[in-house]
Amino acid sequence: MKVTADPEAPAAFVPTDWLRTLRRYLLFAGAAHLLWEAAHLPLYTIWLTATAGELAFAVLHCTGGDLLISLTTMMLALFLFGKPGWPSVRIRPVLAAAVTFGLGYTIFSEWLNIEVRQAWAYRDLMPVIPLTGTGLSPVLQWIAIPVAACAWALRPARARDRADGGGHG
Question: According to the model, what pLDDT value does residue 135 have?
């Protein structure tokens, strides 16, 4: 069976671009979440009470969760707002939805695990957002990393499109 490009997609679109882009997005997001989790760990009380092994486990555990959230939010965004020509078309609505879903889940999860389950706690060093009581670091994490991951995943395609005179929608 011969695979052909979607008629709505730009001429430069290759049917496998979406898979390469999604893979690159998740690889970047995984690495970035690992670094972020390690960097903001001192903002939680576990920093003062856990052993080095427990801290390492917490970073890896949280990074695994972050990667699952990244995959889930991007797939939901693609399902609701994507088009067959993605990522050459509709990248902004898909990214906006993925960020919104990630932020929504993060705010809920931080509230559930801090206020209800008391599974973790912030130190006084953690800036907290008024009204939600959510730490600023996890909120920034779910804005900065999806945006940076998307930019990184699309970079080669954008460079190629500029050379061809095209662009992303």
Answer: 97
| Residue 12 near residue 88 (C-beta atoms within 8 A) | yes
Judging by beta carbons within 10 Å of its beta carbon (0-12, 13-18, 19+), is residue 80 exposed, middle or buried? exposed
Q: Which residues of the chain have pLDDT under 50?
A: 1, 3, 9, 13, 166-169
pTM for this model (two decimals): 0.83
Domain boundaries, the chain: 29-159
Single-letter amino acid, residue 11:
A
* Alpha helices for the chain (secondary structure H): 17-40, 46-49, 52-81, 91-111, 136-164
CA distance 99 to 30: 15
* pLDDT score of 155: 85
For the purposes of burial, counting CB atoms within 10 Å of the CB of 21, is it exposed (0-12), middle (13-18) or buried (19 or more)? Answer: buried
Answer whether 168's CB lies under 8 Å from 91's CB. Answer: yes
Supply the pLDDT for residue 7.
53
pLDDT at 17: 85
Give, as one character, the DSSP assignment of residue 92.
Answer: H
Q: Name the DSSP letter for residue 41.
A: G
Smallest Cα–Cα separation from 33: which of 8, 67, 7? Answer: 67
Q: Are 138 and 106 in contact (CB under 8 A)?
A: yes
Chain-centre distance for alpha carbon 82: 16
